[in-house]
């Protein structure tokens, strides 16, 4: 019995995109909260911690729902595709609200930002468990340890990909001394990469009975 490394790598594209997604979220949202909206670190930390609180309830819930789901593209992929799509859309609304507040100072933009951020946390929670369960569904039990190593490697590559992209688009020389940084291009660039990676995972896992 031999591990199909190519299939495992393609399945891992979903986890790669999610890791890049979370790296983007954790890196960009705190500066927006503190620099644009001028929230103190305690309030900003509480908002960022809301994700972990929601995860206590959402990860088991959507993991269980995906176990029982049956669709033409499998059990996990509907959650991964829908969750990622909605999350990308919401994340690209956030910098618009951020820029609007920086330009006008209107509290409406702040309220809209917090509301969209809450919806984003919910949408992001819908696909984390299904994405983690995707590899074991398609890998024989004796090979899952090696498969898990490849999946974790793909996740690390996702984080590295984001860091390189952010460093190229926003070097210190470009943002030094600025009161407000427009992150819209970085968020918008995620649409193509996330879509491509998830579609690559879907292409290979589509039609697998265990999915």
Rg, Å, rounded: 18 Å
**Could you state the order of secondary-structure elements as H and E?**
HHHHHHHH
Mean pLDDT comes to 80
Shape: globular
Structural class label? mainly alpha
CATH level-3 fold name: Growth Hormone, Chain: A
Q: Give the number of domains.
A: 1
What is the CATH class name? Mainly Alpha
- End-to-end gap: 20 Å
Main sheet properties = none
Number of helices: 8
Give a description of the structure:
This protein has 211 residues and is an all-alpha fold. It has a single domain (5-205), classed as Growth Hormone, Chain: A (Up-down Bundle), CATH 1.20.1250. 81% of the residues lie in helices and 0% in strands. It has eight helices and no strands. It has helices spanning 5-36, 41-68, 77-104, 107-125, 128-138, 144-169, 172-175, 184-205. The longest helix is centred in the N-terminal third of the chain and has 32 residues, at 5-36. The radius of gyration is 18 Å and the shape is globular. The two termini are 20 Å apart. The model is unreliable at 206-211 (pLDDT under 50).
Please write out the topology:
Blueprint: H1 5-36, H2 41-68, H3 77-104, H4 107-125, H5 128-138, H6 144-169, H7 172-175, H8 184-205
Helix pairs in contact: 1-2, 1-3, 1-5, 1-6, 1-8, 2-5, 3-4, 3-8
Quick recap of the structure?
The protein has 211 residues and is mainly alpha-helical. The chain has helices spanning 5-36, 41-68, 77-104, 107-125, 128-138, 144-169, 172-175, 184-205. Helix 1 (5-36) crosses helix 6, helix 1 (5-36) runs antiparallel to helix 8 (184-205) and helix 3 (77-104) packs antiparallel against helix 4.
